[in-house]
Amino acid sequence: MLRSWIVPTEPFFADLERMRAEMERLFDLAAPIGNIRGAIRGTFPAVNVGETPENVLVYIFAPGIDPDKLELTLEKGVLTVSGERDTSKEVGENPDPQGYHRRERFSGKFRRVISLPESVDPGKVSAKYSNGILTVTIGKREEEKARKIEVAVE
Amino acid sequence: MPAEATREVSVKQSEAPVSEERERVRTIVPPVDVYENSEGIILLADMPGVPKENLDVQVDKDVLTIKGKIAKVVPDNLKPLYAEFGAAEYERAFTLGADVDISKIDARISKGVLRLFLPKLEEVRPKKIEIQVE
User: Which residues of B touch A37 (CB under 8 A)?
Assistant: First the structure.
């Protein structure tokens, strides 16, 4: 985990950091083994999954998207999120851009499929979009929730 | 269920490297789009999870630095199962030309996208020359 210590601050090093990320992405493409639904680094939107004793939480990092343009479906423990982001429209007409220097942000249609743990209850789903992160909360089935067993002392 | 048991073990192991201590220092370079027109430069940066109050935009001499801290969204008892995104902060810097009016930089963030407008100094803006017809 050395790379987290050498955080680039100088613009030159930041550019090197981007190059390193790009190299990593290329090597990911050639990786011999990976999760069938896993993604290479830099895929849009990035997804994190976690769980609490009651819920499974999915965090989708989708900045700059109108929440009602996001489509979310849950079927048989598979969550699908799809939508579109057109960064050229985001710039706006005023002031009208006459050209660009960098275009690194994702633009276009996307679709991510996330497999969830078997313990989820498809009937208990809620989603919320805040600061560019879509959080999907899926409840667990009653029988899958961890139960605390009281030990009786005689 | 043996399959469940194995998963438990692997989750426990992967928990160690993403301890809060380490996560606090993890910084990523946000992707940006930079546009330019005769009025100025427009910069858009993807910084999901950053609310307005956690945003820091600074100009020191000719270096523009954008920083943002991700607001805490996860509950304390969350066990990570799978993660593609592991940063807690964003940071990126750019050198500016002398033509930017640093006193009039406009910064706003909405839906996790930072938008900066760096206006050009009045005297460097292109002037349209009227052609007289006799």
Answer: none
